[in-house]
Amino acid sequence: MKKKLFPFSFFLLLVYLSSCNNNNTGTTTHNETQAVPEVKSVFINGDSIHYVDIGNGDPIVLVHGVMGDYRTWEAQMNDFSRNNRVIAYSLRYGYPNKQILDSAADYSLSQNTKDLIELLKALKLEPVHLVGHSSGAFATLLTTIEHPELVRSLILAEPPVMSLLKNIPGGDTLEANFGKMVFPGIEKFKNNEDEKAAEIFINTVMDDSQYLAKHPQRIREIFMANTVQLKGSMLYPKMGFPDINCDDLKKIKIPVLLLQGDRSPLFFRKIIDELDRCLSNKERVTLPNASHGLEYENPAEFNKIVLGFIDKH
Question: How confident is the model at residue 232, as a pLDDT?
């Protein structure tokens, strides 16, 4: 596994979409009568990271991506915590953490991975079931490769492991085309038009030009509370991302669940193809009625699939 600075378009794939619901029949909604979990904090790697921690049993750690926070997993917390201990935390720069945009800061995936490793150790959670989505899934994958002793099972929901596209005919074209689509968003960030930039990124990664417009103002507000890491990684990239190859993946022996949406962009599905090819102890499921926003677009099916996998392991 090598460090490599990918073309700028790779940074854009770190977009993660926070807790949204759509109108398909598989969608559940947050129960407003449920108890609001206490938000706690832990000091790791020089800063405070906020998290919620509910339930008892085997620990499940939920890892969102760049434009989310612990609230991303609202539709999972009740179901997952019935028979398990569930921890959902906000990545560095995510709400309600206090880090601000700083040209000297490290917005890299490597930093997120270091934070996850230290969180598991600080809360004495290992070994855990790790559930990650988008760039959060990439961080859980790196954690598993670097510290297999910390992980009991791994659920990967469309991680943007772009280095795997090099093994696919036309993979470079897929990445280049995505970069062209999101480039206007980079310019918006440079001009401090953060909401417009976020809309361009979100709509592109969801492969739906009207995706964000379909959701209420509350959802837009959650996105805008979580643009710092995305903006920082776009404007102040200092570190490349790990170049994961098939040999790295073959070292993983724990059970892995690969999740993809039936309407997700092609490059995510191609990456899942390569993960499926290289991993030995894995299962693969396509979530119906979902694009890249798997756990909040069809949470009922997502919860059923993930909990079924965890129960087996």
Answer: 85
